[in-house]
Design goal:
The complex is a heterotrimer of chains A (162), B (419) and C (920). Chain A is of the alpha+beta class and 162 residues long. In chain A, 48% of the residues lie in helices and 12% in strands. In chain A, helix 2 runs antiparallel to helix 3 (41-51). Chain C is 29% helix and 17% strand. With 920 residues, chain C is α/β, with parallel strands linked by helices. In chain C, the strands form ten sheets. A seven-stranded mixed sheet of chain C has the order 14-13-27-26-25-15-16, with helices on both faces. In chain C, strands 32-36-33-35-34-37 form a six-stranded mixed β-barrel. The chains are: A alpha+beta (162), B alpha/beta (419), C alpha/beta (920).
């Protein structure tokens, strides 16, 4: 069952579109956010019902877009861009650095679920490359030292919350 | 020394600018909307046509003309969908507008809704742009709270609602028909055209899709007139233009230019030249899908027409600069990897072609290239062009063809190195 | 968009001027005029998707190549499909796809890979790209195997599943070179919600989806164009035959199915090859008593002995003759079967009427739409449908009452879903929430048994709100005042509580139905199988008459006929009160006509109906029975009573393909031919007379039904001499004026002809009642109906309502489908469906056993939770001999249609119990 807040948000979203299916993407975002950043088969079935689409339609959609997750991400999810502009100015090296620091590979969760790392294509911050998104926030013109400092802060934060 | 023109960035470049509705009004905002409300929709369309405004999303199609294609009297609602799915590698200009001056853009959107009789407009923002989404939603809330949007535009006009629709991570949704499928709640598959969106777009209703920067030009056009807009830039390349400069330059950033600037000047004046005293090797002048220019080819006017003449394109005005140390085989691999990752997977030449192209380039990177494969790569690239449902095939084919032609020797060097 | 072309367009293709018909794409025009353009994702009848790009052509003046499947030509357009650029692109597409085939070449799963065919034609031999990692085979489903290594992502299966059959199981997931076909939420096919219609298999061009038994690589000896033996939809199909065995079945373009089939039609054919097939006549061994117990097949040889045809026919006929001669004609009766052909039905009723000398001939129509037919004959003078179901395309509102169409008429349901997807309003009226509800604008889950209250409330609204079609009322109807008077007591507000539907919903539905440009009503057994079944149907007829929603395309009344030939068997007079063409047996003109045609005197008294015959047998008034194909020991209500009756017969002859539950009671069993082993005509629910053609030789010494009936007739003293089925058909044309215009030759050529077709060359009328009705006054008659309740209401001891019906995979008594490998594998066990909350209250876990008991009988089956079944109700199909639902049902009859109340009786439920042993 979806949380009451999530249901309210969904109702609000549905009211903004001519047909329920139109709200599928934003609803998936809301549901994912309400479930620690990932979607489960049960949630997908529920969303299919809400948007009056088939399960297979939902499957087609969530697998098409990169932002929907079927596995629980870390508390802080890092998206490191290695697309052309970022790559020109050190995006790949930044990713390698993060992987080393966390002793993991892109696509995995590390540090007891505090961080997860993902290598991504262009994030649209090309003039401020290299860019990293952590959860919903952009961090730009990054370099290994800046990122280390940031992650240290987040780690402390994450542990404090845990 | 090349200098910025300040029209779209007028507020943004003002360090004291307050981007709230109050601040925007104080800076003279919403005057154009009020004026537009007094105009007939056809008048706004005509004014836009007269201004020579061309789409800033990449294709450069005349905006007024696009509006005039909208099917009339269909008994269906009419939609304006703003394409804020900025995802062509190298491009980050719309984000500036949405983050730092959302009201100017929204005013443009409202004017455009009036022009085409849209009562509910959608802004499709790429999913990663949460900060932009938040910025827009906050601005929209102000507009609703102020009674500007809602049942009566500005309290006296027609009903108008605007909704921000987040994408979810798919480059292809920047293609307008894929964007429409996506906003309908589907996979973002580009549609076979015809029919065009002006006849059958969002939920099969007449729809226009316009880019953020395009719409942001509207307040200026309404306020200052078509001629004033046209006066910026050369014939057929009217109006101010935002360019995203990235890669090996000292001062990357988003700059507002007239389209009579020289590409070289943009790189050296705005960009401050190549860092560390390196030599320039090449420039990708209009987003990842444009044909590459070598260092010898950059003395060219940065405009739709001049770049087309130079065998490339202005696209989304994203200039990516790379220096002498850059491994172009690796660079092309990055570009093709991008398109392969972003292919929607619907049509064969693109789905399979981007994959094979990537595989062949990887062979070169692994030292397994040969003359035969270079030729095949060139042909696979060529075969994607003009045969796919949407332009992604061309987008991937152009860099492949231009890199393998202009930097063929470097592909051979990789071989030699491996051998 | 290009305006939809309405006239012929001339354009140039490869230098040759050709014409495109309105709406044709470049590809279609090319195909029709004999030019070939490669294509993979295009399939005739499907929405063109333009994704494979194998069909790209160069159009003068256009920069990019165009997919010829998606492009309508324009006048004067210059199209080149063979320019260097076009050919190069076409070849590259084939090469890219071929390189990913297993072993980089031919599809290892089918002989008919379209990719292989085009590769050969285009001369693409060895792909130059290395293949990549491919998914593993999925063999989780009994009917369909999935080998996506042969998939070319053409999405024909996706369109098949989502746009054609609208089952919404197959999807397209991931993107780019990871794009893949998925089922539901990326589930194995066998655990997905797939209903195994097989449309995707038929659509797949490369063998990525195939029947599960590797038949794709076998080459057939012959293909035979025929039709489907199961339901009244009447799908046309093709049998692929090798060594007298059916390899596979494919849908064929037919007016009722447009190449579609369902799981039974496509995968339910191997019953014909089942070892249980009777291959030799059998005679009951002397002295073996008949008891109410069903015969265990393992004991078959202890009860019956094989005999020659000569002996068996002699024993069979002489027994009947003796009873007729010694005890009078009324001591004999016959049951025909709606699975048999028109010719078989015609011969059997003729045999009973002329050989037995009475009208005691009936068949399973009595158990399905007898009440509907009575109401229709009474109200509008004809028992057949007014419009074909494919008319939903022209309808604005489609009302479906008491019909779980996706289960019982699966292919018809696909057209309903297509219509709903095209924006038409689907209104469902059914106590159960059925799968169609997903596509419906309204789904009225009303209280069982309150049909008349609901329909009267709808009509009340129409009258009260002035929504009647006054012009139509005046011109074409009679008796409206009495109806109006009756409706006064049925306001929606008053009836809301009775039927459990809010008054405002009732009003909305009434308005929508009445005011739409065209509204059509479909109904099934949920309407007819009540003791007020005739009243239920009367209401639906009145609804159509008062609004004038009849007599035009997209309107009308369509009782969805159950069996493949229940329409035909009824037309042929396989019912006790009428001769062929519904001529009453008591009508002197009709009697005279048939006496002349058949050269004998006829009994002017209507005969007895199915359940009445059983009752008379029970009372020992009827002593001899001849059955062709029916299985009353499973299909009739109150089975303990029915079986008792069967055991009391002095002489009982049955002809069938299997030793059915009923056959165990017989004295003589005559082995006959299965559907694919004979030729004949069959009339579907749309009044389309269609040919079933012989594809196989019958096994052993089994014979054709028409031959057996004729041999029986001869031995009963009749001088019949039909040389074959066409001879019989010729006589039918004489006996049935509405079919007089249909010739055997035309059937051979056209496969399907709609009646009425009175004169040779008539096209046949799909829509009837366009100008009044075939009643004495020419007007449709209103017959008011009062709300009345079921024969047996729940009480404290028997608190649940027991509803019987069918299920997708099993046909009626299961004699065919439980012997069909795939169907039996999908649904092997008797299932009783109960609302999960009731299951919870009973303390029964889904999948465990549940015992159902009524005042008449008891059974144990496996519980299945079904949210569609309302609380307090239980649903079960009657296909399982180890848990025969009709042990429970009541044999109380509708007074007009004489149909039993299969849809309502009171039961109690208890957890646990041991199911009886399965006897198939």
């Amino acid at each position: 069952m979806l949380a009451l807040d999530t249901q309210k948000e969904i109702a609000q979203l549905l009211s903004r579109y001519p047909i329920k299916r139109n709200a599928l993407l934003p609803i998936l975002h809301v549901v994912q956010k309400g479930n620690e950043g990932y979607l489960t088969p049960e949630l997908l079935e529920e969303v299919a019902g809400i948007c009056e689409v088939s399960q297979t339609h939902v499957e087609g959609v969530i697998s098409f877009y990169t932002m929907y997750k079927l596995e629980k991400p870390g508390k802080f999810h890092l998206q490191v861009c290695t697309c052309v502009p970022c790559c020109l100015v050190g995006g790949e090296e930044l990713l390698e650095h993060v992987e080393q620091q966390l002793d993991t590979h892109a696509g995995h969760t590390a540090d007891d679920g505090v961080f997860s790392v993902e290598e991504v294509e262009c994030l649209g911050a090309c003039s401020y490359a290299p860019a990293v998104i952590i959860n919903e926030d952009y961090h730009e013109q990054m370099n290994p030292e800046k990122l280390d400092r940031l992650m240290d802060e987040l780690r402390t934060q994450g542990q404090a919350h845990a | 020394m090349l200098e910025e023109t300040l029209i779209l960035f007028r507020n943004i470049r003002n360090p004291d600018y307050d981007k709230s509705l109050k601040g925007y009004k104080k800076a003279g905002g919403l005057k154009a909307l009020k004026q537009a409300l007094e105009m007939q929709p056809d008048e706004i369309v005509q004014l836009t046509k007269d201004s020579g405004l061309r789409g800033r999303g990449g294709a450069g199609f005349p905006t007024g003309l696009k509006w005039s294609f909208m099917a009339k009297d269909t008994g269906k609602p009419t939609y304006l969908v703003c394409n804020a799915d900025e995802s062509e590698p190298g491009t980050c200009k719309d984000r500036e507008l949405m983050l730092h001056d959302p009201h100017q853009f929204l005013e443009g959107m409202m004017i455009s809704c009036l022009a085409i009789g849209c009562r509910h407009g959608y802004i499709y923002v790429r999913g990663e742009y949460w900060p932009s989404i938040k910025s827009l939603n906050a601005a929209l809330q102000e507009l609703y709270d102020d009674g500007i949007l809602g049942k009566k535009l500005l309290g006296k006009g027609p009903k108008l609602d605007l909704t921000v629709h987040p994408g979810a991570g798919a480059y292809i949704c920047g293609e307008e028909t894929a964007l429409l499928d996506s906003i309908e709640g589907k996979r973002g598959h580009p549609r076979v055209k015809p029919p065009f969106p002006a006849v059958s777009g969002f939920n099969a209703c007449p729809t226009t899709v316009n880019n953020v920067e395009t719409l942001t030009c509207l307040p200026f056009i309404v306020n200052e007139g078509a001629e004033a807009f046209k006066a910026f830039g050369p014939e057929n390349n009217a109006g101010p233009h935002l360019i995203s400069l990235s890669g090996h330059v000292n001062k990357p950033g988003v700059y507002e230019v007239r389209l009579d600037a020289n590409l070289k000047d943009i790189i050296y004046d705005f960009g401050g030249g190549i860092p560390n005293g390196k030599q320039l090797k090449g420039v990708i002048p209009g987003g990842a899908s444009s044909s590459v220019l070598t260092a010898d080819e950059i003395d060219v006017t940065y405009s739709f027409d001049a770049l087309a003449q130079a065998g490339t394109m202005m696209g989304s005005a994203a200039i990516m600069v790379f220096d002498e140390d850059t491994d172009v085989v690796k660079l092309l691999h990055r570009i093709v990897r991008f398109f392969s990752h972003e292919s929607c997977g619907q049509c064969t030449p693109c789905r399979e072609g981007t994959h094979w192209a990537r595989m062949i380039i990887r062979d070169f990177l692994n030292g397994n290239g040969n003359e035969h494969k270079l030729k095949r790569l060139h042909r696979v690239g060529g075969n994607m062009m003009g045969t796919t449902v949407c332009a992604l095939g061309d987008a991937c084919g152009m860099p492949i063809q231009s890199f393998t032609t202009k930097f063929a020797d470097e592909f051979r060097d990789v071989q030699a190195l491996a051998a | 968009m290009d305006a939809f072309p309405t006239e012929i367009v001339r354009f140039e293709l490869d230098g040759k001027t050709i014409e495109a018909l309105p709406g044709e794409s470049i590809l279609q025009a090319a195909q029709r005029t004999g030019s070939e353009i490669p294509h993979l994702c295009y399939k005739a009848g499907y929405r063109p998707d333009g994704n494979c790009r194998a069909c790209v052509v160069e159009i003068d003046g256009e920069r990019v190549l165009a997919p010829s499947c998606c492009r309508n030509p324009k006048e004067g357009m210059q199209v080149n499909s063979q320019s260097e650029r076009a050919l190069h692109s076409q070849k590259m597409v084939v090469e890219l796809l071929l390189s990913d085939m297993p072993e980089q070449g031919k599809s290892p799963y089918t002989q008919r890979s379209e990719l292989d065919i085009w590769a050969e034609k285009l001369g693409v031999v060895q792909p130059r790209f290395a293949g990549r990692q491919q998914p593993v085979q999925d063999i989780s489903h009994p009917a369909i195997s999935v080998q996506l290594d042969a998939c070319i992502q053409c999405t024909r299966c996706v369109r098949a599943c989502r746009e054609v059959q609208v089952n919404d199981v197959i999807g397209y997931a991931n993107r780019g070179d990871h794009s893949t076909i998925v089922f539901d939420l990326n589930d194995p096919l066998g655990v997905s919600t797939c209903v195994a219609c097989g449309e995707c298999v038929q659509a797949c061009p490369t063998g990525a989806l195939m029947p599960s038994d590797n038949v794709g690589l076998e080459v057939s000896d012959k293909t035979v164009a025929s039709s489907c033996p199961y339901c009244g939809v009447g799908c046309l199909l093709t049998y692929d035959v090798k060594d007298n065995r059916i390899l596979r079945v494919e849908g064929r373009e037919g007016p009722a199915n447009k190449s579609r089939l369902c799981v039974k039609g496509r995968y339910g054919f191997d019953y014909v090859h089942h070892p249980d097939r009777l291959t030799q006549p059998q005679i009951r061994c002397e002295g073996v008593p008949k008891t109410v117990e069903l015969l265990n097949p393992s004991d078959f040889d202890k009860v019956f002995r094989p005999a020659s045809w000569e002996e068996a026919l002699e024993v069979a006929a002489s027994g009947l003759k003796r009873i007729r001669d010694e005890q009078g004609p009324q001591a004999l009766a016959g049951f025909g079967c709606a699975k048999g052909s028109n010719e078989e039905a015609y011969l059997l009723q003729k045999l009973v009427r002329t050989g037995f000398g009475n009208n005691n001939i009936d068949h399973c129509t009595r158990l399905c739409h007898a009440s509907s037919v009575v109401a229709l004959l009474e109200g509008i003078g004809s028992g057949a449908v007014s419009n074909p179901f494919t008319d939903v395309e022209d309808a604005e509102v489609i009302m479906v009452v008491g019909s779980n169409t996706p289960v019982n008429h699966p292919v018809a349901a696909t057209f309903f879903k297509n219509a709903a997807q095209a924006g038409k309003d689907l209104i469902l009226i059914d106590p159960r929430r059925i799968d169609l509800a997903r596509y419906a604008s309204y789904s009225l889950q009303f209280n069982p048994d309150t049909d008349v209250a609901l329909f009267n409330a709808l009509m009340h609204t129409i009258v009260e709100e002035g929504l009647c079609n006054e012009e139509y009322l005046a011109k074409y109807t009679e008796g409206f005042d009495a109806l109006k008077e009756n409706l006064k007591d049925y306001s929606p507000e008053g009836m809301a509580k009775v039927c459990g539907i809010p008054a405002e919903t009732l009003r909305e539905v009434a308005r929508r139905y009445a005011t739409a440009k065209s509204s059509i009503i479909f109904w099934g057994m949920g309407v007819s199988q009540h003791i007020h079944g005739t009243d239920n149907a009367r209401c639906l007829i009145a609804l159509a008459l008062m609004t004038g929603q009849i007599g035009r395309p997209g309107t009308g009344l369509h009782p969805l006929r159950g069996q493949n030939n229940v329409q035909g068997a009824s037309d042929m007079g396989l019912i006790p009160m009428v001769f062929p063409d519904y001529k009453p047996v008591g009508d002197p003109t009709a009697k005279h006509f048939f006496e002349k045609l058949w050269g004998t005197t006829l009994d002017p008294n209507p005969g007895l109906t199915v359940v009445e015959i059983t009752e008379e047998i029970h009372k020992r008034n009827i002593k001899g029975l001849y059955i062709m194909g029916e299985n009353p020991a499973m299909s009739d209500p109150n089975l303990n009573h029915t079986r008792e009756a069967l055991a009391r017969l002095e002489h009982f002859v049955i002809q069938d393909i299997f030793p059915t539950e009923t056959a165990g009671f017989a004295d003589v069993i005559l082995p006959t031919s299965a559907f694919p082993e004979k030729t004949g005509t069959f009339t579907n629910t749309n009044r389309q007379v269609q040919l079933g053609r012989q594809a196989l030789e019958p096994p052993g010494d089994s014979r054709q039904d028409w031959w057996i009936i004729q041999e029986m007739a001869k031995r009963l003293g009749l001088s019949w001499n039909y040389r074959g089925v066409p001879d019989v058909f010729e006589e039918i044309r004489k006996a049935t004026p509405s079919m007089a215009g249909i010739t055997w030759d035309r059937l051979e050529q056209d496969h399907s002809v709609t009646y009425p077709c009175e004169n040779e060359g008539d096209p046949g009328d799909p829509v009837i009642f366009t100008d009044g009705f075939p009643t004495p006054s020419g007007r449709g008659k209103f017959v008011p109906a009062k709300f009345s309740q079921a024969a047996e209401l729940p009480n404290e001891e028997f608190p649940y309502v027991f509803i019987t019906g069918r299920q997708l995979e099993h046909w009626h008594t299961g004699s065919m489908t439980r012997r069909a490998g795939v169907l039996d594998a999908i649904e092997p066990l008797p299932i009783v469906s109960v609302n999960p909350s009731d299951l919870g209250q009973l303390g029964v876990d889904a999948g465990t056993t549940l015992t159902v008991q009524s005042r008449r009988g008891k059974l144990t089956a496996f519980a299945r939770g079904d949210h569609g079944v309302p609380e307090g109700n239980v649903y079960m199909s009657f296909a399982y001999n180890e848990a025969a639902a009709n042990l429970i049902t009541t044999d109380r009859l509708d007074p007009f249609g004489k149909i039993p109340e299969f849809k309502f009786c009171a039961v109690k439920l208890s957890a646990g119990g041991d199911p009886a042993p399965r006897l198939v």
